[in-house]
Each structure stands twice: as structure tokens, then as C-alpha cells.
Amino acid sequence: MTISMYQASVPPIVKCLHNLINILKKGAAHAETKKIDPSVLINSRLYPDMHPLSKQVQIASDLTRRGVARLAGVEAPAMADDETTFPQLIDRLHNTIAYLETITPAQIDGTEQKQISLPIGKHSIEFAGMPYLVSFILPNLYFHATTTYNILRHSGVEVGKMDFLGKP
Known about the structure:
This protein is mainly alpha-helical. It has a single domain, classed as Up-down Bundle (Four Helix Bundle (Hemerythrin (Met), subunit A)), CATH 1.20.120. The chain is 62% helix and 7% strand. It has helices spanning 5-33, 38-42, 53-72, 86-100, 105-108, 129-154, 161-165, and strands at 115-120, 123-128. The protein has a two-stranded antiparallel ribbon. A hairpin with a 2-residue loop joins β1 (115-120) and β2 (123-128). α1 (5-33) runs antiparallel to α4 (86-100). The model has no long low-confidence stretch (mean pLDDT 97).
């Protein structure tokens, strides 16, 4: 049995983003229960030179939305990076998921060798479709989702491995 580019991209991305929503909900509940200003958690970072939680979520949204759009050969909708609350970050992820669910297998399947040009500043990185997915999109998603999880866990939010992995 083979796995298609669509199966390897949209379903695992959507699952990870749903899990991230649940983690953010736990963060919001923790802040409310412990009487912590939610902005403290949203602006927290693991180290001074790392992005805060809000930016981690925004990047996870951006790179998956834009990445899948590049594979599908369509333009991803723009999103402003202006979220400052848990509900706003959660809404952003819901909107990202809703967009990803508009992409069909026919748009993604067969893109293993498609040439992808990823603009980075004044330069571009060139990928074939499969390496772009498995060496760039997915690892970056998991990095930013893990970092979000770690910021909240380090801040005392009771999340565990199964919150990150979600239900099978």
C-alpha cells in the first residue's frame, strides 16, 4: 500500500492543529483557574531569543497553510499576525483547518516531484514536493507545536504527551 501526498500532508497537519487547539484551551483554563493574566502565557517564551507562544502558533498556522497551498498550486489566504488572546489564537487555528479542508486530494496527489520555490528574505530555497513536505513543512509544524506545548507545560499547565499526540 502506498501513501499519497494528500494523506501524508493534510490529515496529519489538521490533526496536529486540532491537538494544538486543545492544548491552548488547557492553557486558557489554567490561566483562569490560577488567576493568571492570560497575556503572561501568550507572551511567554522558552528562552529570550525564541519567539513567544503567540508567534509559535502563528508560524504553525502560516507554514502549514502556505505550504499546502504551494503544493496545491493555489494562493493561501493571508492572515494578520495580531492575535493576543487564547480565543484569537484558537480561532486562527480553526480558520487554518477550515482552509486546509478545502484542499482536495486531486490538488495534492502527484506533487512528489513538483518544484517548490520557498522565498526566504531576498533568496529562495528550492525543493521537490515530497522533500518539501517531509523535510520542511511537517518538521516545522511539529517544532512549533512542540514549542507551544513546552511553553505551557513549563508554565505549569497540566498537559501531557497524549494532549500533543491526540486520539489515534
